[in-house]
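Quick illustration for those who missed Monday's session on complexes.
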Amino acid sequence: MLNKNPYNLCVAPMMGHTDIHFRYFLRLISKHAMLYSEMVAVNAILHNKTSRYNKLEHNRDNPVGFQLGGDDPRKLSECAKIIESYGYDEINLNIGCPSKRAQSGNFGACLFSQPEIVAKCVEEISKNTVLPITIKTRLGIDNLNDIKYLKDFINIVSSQGVEVFHLHARIALLKKGINPKHNRSIPEINYERVYKVKRAYPDIKIILNGEINDPNIAVKHLQYVDGVMLGRAVCNNPFILNEIDILINSEQQKNRNEILEKYFSYINANYCKDMKITDFTKHLACLFKGYIGSKHTRAYMCHELNYEKEPLKKLEKLLFEEDLWKDGQGLYSKVV
Ligand SMILES: Cc1cc2nc3c(=O)[nH]c(=O)nc-3n(C[C@H](O)[C@H](O)[C@H](O)COP(=O)(O)O)c2cc1C
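Prediction with flavin mononucleotide bound:
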């Protein structure tokens, strides 16, 4: 049974994480979760020459949304057409990234103060695609930090047909110049404001994001919003998706060794010598957290495996033969 509300469980777009391989791995764990690509800036798509692999490719890991960064309606619209041709289910606009690069390109969180431009972008994109357009943003930026402003933003943007907003439940601090990593922990999270927004917009889907790392708490949030979006918790423990699916999507507990075997087969089928094997294996490094020697093993999965003569054999041994893995399911309960 596929879930009727694809947004009740979402995995946040994360640069360096939610690439084609991680999404494949996550899809083995959850057939329900709505997945998102890493953010890709419009120019990177329109002048796609430098990327090591094509960030648009995907493994039919639907439902999957593609996240775009940009402020030029015409370029965004061109990209949307390309994205649709690749088989994505949704175009998600990034209106939440606080990085200096995003600010200098006038995309990400700084567009929160320019809702008319965002609405124009949505209008142009929708001329070129039938895909739904959704918005990922924050509760505010700098001194635009009240619910009235957030509602004005939603009113203006939803007037162009946006029906889904993913809200990272804290504001972006742009003027203070803190880096994006810090701006994911400060200022304090404010779930209550997201609940209030949902109450004000019964016909718009409001998805709550920010510091959700406990399946039972995720379920509690679902009493007040249409969906939860998890980011870092999934990178730390991808199997949390199965735990939440059990609670909200009537799923059974998945056999974790079987999933690893399938992912290993995928690596076997797709890895070739001019690729970095760590592009596949870095997503497994989290599984070693909390074990003796785990720092070394994680470094091995993220870097050193590339220098092995026969990396696949080494990987197979590490995953399926080392003592570490012999206790099967028990391994994962220790993941933090
Ligand atoms: C490594 C990393 C990369 C991220 N990249 C993106 C991105 O490309 N687009 C985006 O909208 N948010 C990005 N984010 C923010 C997450 O989508 C999410 O909003 C944030 O981490 C808060 O959710 P969490 O507390 O569940 O991690 C990133 C977060 C992390 C940790």
